[in-house]
């Protein structure tokens, strides 16, 4: 409830006095609390109740509105559109329409009235800018326009126009006039102003003001030859700047590139004349005593003579008074001209020669690819050189193998020596090698998101990137020489492995891809687990491709391919898909009420029927299921449409080969026909069907129009397309395919070979322009003629090699046939040549192919004849490691070196793990194999046999021995074992994966330093090197921890701890960041003896520096003035303010620190003020005292007002009430008065009154409703006498 403001903090005002007096006695007076209510019989009684009046609120700042009002009065004489017939109260219709147009243009409201004297009054309301614009438009369109002309000299017109006419436009907008300035080619000085009379006067005043200001200014062009401009300007333009500042003029000197023999001066006329005389005086003085001297300076040194921004030229002019003129940049001259006092030429020449020879330029030869290493990461090395030699400029040539250095001779020599040394070192330690990779292998070599090369980079520490530009199939390997060799070898091995793999492409409708993959990839996972050596690759979704690739070993790929063919066939049968275009407005009828119709069709046909969404543009209904069921569902849906839409079907016969052309790219052509003809549907034969019929469905007129368009497009395409069929036996196709690409490129035709589903397998088609097709057909006929001249020959091959030729389903023969072309190779049955040493192989085919096949056969025989066998002694316990998983390592060696490797048969006890004691003897002799003996008791060694060409056998032997693992022991301090293993063994697992070795760390109980490394020799060396690096890093970490553990203890009075910590820990965090130390303050558990201890941990020098910093803070705090002030704790929160904003502003204002007591402090009223000066501290104290007085008055007022509030819901017995007063107490009520006594006399304990008794409340309401009691009458009230 609001109270009068007069009851302020001082307690002035009647309301406050009554309240305080009543409060002293325990409550308000009855007259104040319950004033008499007014009625119609008499005026209301005056009252001093705090509730009787509302407070006078302080005035709030008014919000400034953006709405403006403009008033415009146009007299009758000035109205442009006035009419003689108009009378009072009848406005002209033309003027009203003008106002309407202005309202539309500006968005304002215009109220137009016509006065008795014929004048118009317009009240315009709207946004300020728009209201002003509307007023100007009304003046121009409704008020009579006048015209005047001002004769202003033409040289001042440019000042009236301003840049891009801005000044003229501003005057027109402000005065609602039109100003016409004559063109420069017009012979007139008159400026015409058009507009209302008042506006013309304003515009004329503005124009005359600009003219008068500009007429006081002067301008001069001083003829001074260009050669003497530097002397007039002075060194670094000092003379010109001095004159500009002294006389407030503008001096325009043409730039060096402009050959102009004059200098312009503008400003006040007197100042311009004086400056002109000064400049001419300087020029005449220099011109009389100056001479010219020409010297030859190599052109490459001119820029050093000139210096940055001609600084050297101005330096020479300042010291000698001689100006040095250099030839133009596009000139080939090397002559330098000195102009000035001849006595100073010698000194000037010395400076010129010193500047010319102050800089030299040399080149350092360095391969381009090491430039980045010499530049450093982020340019660190170049930045270091620049800081050490700031006058030297280094430029790395991005297109050549050189580095350019420019600067002082001595510094340049030092930098050159340093760069040459660094270049030599980098060339000796680093290497760069380029590898050409087949494009089809590139993405597999790089891996997804660079995973494969990224792994190689991490293992060997090399950089691998692809060549930019045209050579995108080139990989660049860069790094340490040994690492580059290893990386290149690894990449070549991967490429070789990929070359030996086979990939088969399978065309599967992309709609079936998800079904083959299965939900969450379950089905494809089963396929990959069944065919583990193969990889099934599906195209990306955005590729929109049907090709699925199966990659892996040939036999596994063939098996997987057959499996997928069967799977796809099953899926196609059960997922036949038909798309039926149905008019969009028919979909509701096909669905039926509550989906009854579509549900019935689904149940009867056992199909899945999908309709497009209502907001979709598509009108195609998709039916999925078995073929016969899907066709039945399609017929049922089409029947519903035909019955409801009265549609007709028009069939158009177009050759099947033209259907693709009619569809167009992404269906654009067929969509265009549908859009042009309206509500029609066009149905083409399904893919694979040979039908020529295209069905058009829709209203008769639309269907006929679409059919006509289709026929016309087919006829047009027929004229521009020509094809010929060529008969060729299927056995010739293989040979023809080898030559098809060259024919296509030569004649720009397409050659289509029949597929497995085609009926005519002996016909191929050539498509293109007629003349080109005929030429291509002639070439094909020529090839066929050669093929028809088939020859049969034979070749003798040793019988011992027949089995190898036929092994693995004749893999060798298939490769020979593929390389030779269309040739047949036939070996006789084995039984026919059992007693012969040679076998006759029959070759049949074209002469060229037969000759090539014979040479390939004989070459293969020669390779096999040259084979040798070599045995390698390898312990049987290493066989499994050498073979690798599923023999991959051995198979890779056989493929790489074209050899055969045979391991000895495993002995029975090795297979069964048996022995005389159930394998116990083998366990005991695991490190030493039990020997195998022959019949004579001699030990028979088990050897690995390698068969192949001699050079291949040796290479394979080396590769095989390189796979034999070795064990190496290393000494690693026991304390480092935990760090080496890592959390949960994560670190050591990463190391083993990176180095491809096994690391055996001894148990902690052994307390041993020996760690065993097991793996291949090349991997062991890398692991040893890496382990040494790990140990070195741990040593460094140990030393670092020791250096960072320097401890400094300080004893600091706890009263300073808060200052050191800062608000929110700001200060202590700053100390930690600046000095890189750990700062520990005492805790409660440290006890009272260490309550003042602060510990610093870090580097010794930084810890001591932090200690000094803390001591300086303490010294500064101890010198500050501290004052303790007693402030009532009830007003602390008000002084602090929300989130401490008020106290922070207070401390910033007085430059002091104010600390309030904490809850646990003994004295809750004690506030401490700290500051640098006594004056600031005492000023702060004075302000705090003033705030205390103001806030305490408010607390007192609030306490008094709380008496009027409704009783709170606090439990009085619990002591939770904020005010434990006696509540709302009334003094001097009628029921308290008895025989001249009141409650204040101690008789307040009376019976509770009845508010319905008029005698108990005589003054409530009118007071005239009941007669007053006699003076001596005895009251019947229960409260009349005390109980």
UniProtKB/TrEMBL annotation:
It comes from Ramazzottius varieornatus (Water bear). InterPro entries: KH_dom (IPR004087), KH_dom_type_1 (IPR004088), KH_dom_type_1_sf (IPR036612), KH_Vigilin_N (IPR057778). The gene is RvY_11033-1. It is found in: Cytoplasm. This is K Homology domain-containing protein. Residues 1-64, 885-940, 1203-1283 are annotated as: Disordered. GO terms for molecular function: mRNA binding. Residues 895-911 have a biased composition (Basic and acidic residues). The lineage of its organism: Eukaryota, Metazoa, Ecdysozoa, Tardigrada, Eutardigrada. Residues 925-936 have a biased composition (Polar residues). Keywords: Coiled coil, Cytoplasm, Repeat, RNA-binding. Signal peptide: none annotated. Residues 623-650, 766-793 form a coiled coil. Residues 75-143, 144-212, 216-284, 289-357, 358-424, 429-496, 500-569, 574-642, 646-715, 720-785, 789-862, 866-965, 966-1032, 1044-1115, 1119-1189 form the K Homology domain.
